[in-house]
Design goal:
The structure holds 2 protein chains of 2 kinds. Chain A is mainly alpha-helical. Chain A contains 5 helices and 1 strand; from the N terminus they run E-H-H-H-H-H. The radius of gyration of chain A is 53 Å and the shape is elongated. In chain B, strand 3, helix 2 and strand 4 form a beta-alpha-beta unit. The longest helix of chain B is centred in the last third of the chain and has 18 residues. Chain B is globular, with a radius of gyration of 15 Å. The chains are: A mainly alpha, B alpha/beta. Chains A and B meet through strand 1, helix 1 and helix 2 of A and helix 1, strand 2 and helix 5 of B. Chain B: Keywords: Centromere, Chromosome, Cytoplasm, Kinetochore, Nucleus.
Chain lengths: 247, 180
């Protein structure tokens, strides 16, 4: 008896709990979609389904049998335990995948061997493929080597640059210390007593000369001589005007 | 019964049932319609509910997958989902529960932060999907994903179990969670 797979949608009236409350949702009419399917295919599919569901139920039964009664764990412990279990699942999955890969590889290699023994090994397409693979592998190795060499060179250049930078850094440091030393020496020198005495003398001389300048100026002005006419005279007067402290 | 348990009933032949829990009826209806439009070899049944617990007087088939729909625009839907989570048995969370967050596209109207939902999904170790149901282009892929998840959780896909799918989905989530 061929079963027509149909599709339906049904809604549930939700239980009105404390404060909340659902309501009745209208029922939706189902849409009949018929898929043309072979009887045999259908039966095989149902068989696979039932197998899978049986597996699920079996595993649940095993799980509930194994579980020993545990005491109430705290939140953090529960989280840690869950993560451990998850990691276990992942590890089992990975191990299974690797075993499957190894098995596939073994099967493939035996099939290849048998195929090679059967056919003429010189002319088979397989040999061409293998030779091509070998050629490509050689190319790969060569380009790997080249890129490795280039990387080495790059590394050397970088090292040299670093060394140069360090050398320049030390040189600049030296220059700075020298400059600082010079500045210190200058400061020390300026503070010495000799300099102070010399400076005092200089000040005295400047003041004396300024007084003399003013005296001459007043003399010339007092004499009511026209100093603007004669250029040599003018120059002398202007020179007297010079402020000696600025020199 | 006030607590939902997986595998407590016999599965229907070639039938897969999904339960969508959420406060927005129109949204759930849209999702249900998109899912039913999908091409699927098994018979799909979609149950919609506002909140758990479900009334025990109704005869319903075994529920294979529960999707909690949280609307990021309303804090009420988040609270509703948190309330309903208490009525689900712990064994359900081995791959048969998922979270669906909607409305993440309009950042200005989101009253629930994205990280809250991410943390919720992380606490319950369940996958989190995002969906913007108004845009038709988003709804169809999400419906396809849901249908595929449902098929796996109902045991219709040989070789893949719900727990397997869970660990598959998990490994892509964890790196981003570490950044949070």
């Amino acid at each position: 008896m061929e079963k027509q797979p149909g599709k339906q949608a049904a809604t549930e009236p939700a239980d009105s709990g404390a404060g909340g409350g659902g309501g009745e949702l209208p029922q939706v009419a189902g849409a009949q979609a018929a898929r043309p399917e072979d009887r045999l295919t259908l039966l095989l599919r149902l068989r696979a389904q039932t197998k899978q569901q049986l597996l699920e139920y079996k595993s649940m039964v095993d799980a509930t049998e194994e579980k020993a009664p545990e005491q109430i764990l705290q939140d953090k412990q529960v989280e840690a335990k869950i993560e451990d279990l998850e990691n276990e699942i992942e590890e089992v999955k990975i191990a299974f995948e690797m075993k499957k890969l190894a098995l596939d590889r073994m099967q493939l290699s035996t099939a290849l061997k048998k195929n090679l023994e059967k056919n003429n090994p010189r002319t088979s397409v397989l040999m061409d493929n293998m030779k091509h693979i070998l050629k490509l592998n050689k190319l790969i190795m060569k380009s790997h080597q080249e890129s490795w060499d280039l990387e080495e060179k790059l590394l050397d250049v970088r090292k040299k640059r670093l060394q140069l930078k360090q050398a320049s850094e030390s040189k600049l440091l030296e220059i700075q210390t020298e400059k600082n030393k010079q500045k210190d020496d200058l400061a020390v020198m300026e503070n010495s007593d000799k300099i102070k005495a010399i400076q005092q003398n200089l000040q005295m001389e400047i003041q004396i000369t300024t007084v003399i300048q003013h005296v001459f100026q007043n003399l010339i002005l007092g004499s009511k001589a026209n100093w603007a006419e004669d250029p040599a005279f003018k120059e002398t007067v202007l020179q007297l005007e010079k402020n000696l402290t600025m020199i | 019964m006030s607590v939902l348990r997986p595998l407590d009933k016999q599965p229907g032949l070639n039938t897969a049932t999904i339960l969508l829990v959420g406060t927005e009826d129109a949204l759930l209806q849209q999702l249900a319609d998109s899912m039913l439009k999908e091409d699927c070899a098994s018979e799909l049944k979609v149950h919609l509910a506002r909140s758990l617990p479900l009334p025990s007087n109704v005869n319903r088939p075994r529920i294979d997958l529960i999707m909690f729909v949280v609307n990021l625009h309303s804090k009420y839907s988040l609270r509703n989902v948190e309330e309903s989570l208490r009525h689900v048995d712990a064994t359900f969370f081995l791959g048969k529960v998922g979270f669906l967050a909607t409305g993440a596209g309009r950042e200005s109207q989101c009253s629930v932060h994205r990280s809250t939902v991410v943390r919720l999904a992380r606490t319950y170790r369940s996958p989190l999907l995002f969906c913007d149901p108004e845009v038709d282009g988003f709804r169809v892929p999400v419906a396809q994903r849901l249908v595929r998840m449902l098929q796996i959780c109902a045991g219709h896909v040989p070789g893949v179990s719900a727990l397997n799918l869970l660990s598959l989905l998990r490994s892509s989530e964890n790196p981003t969670l570490e950044d949070l």
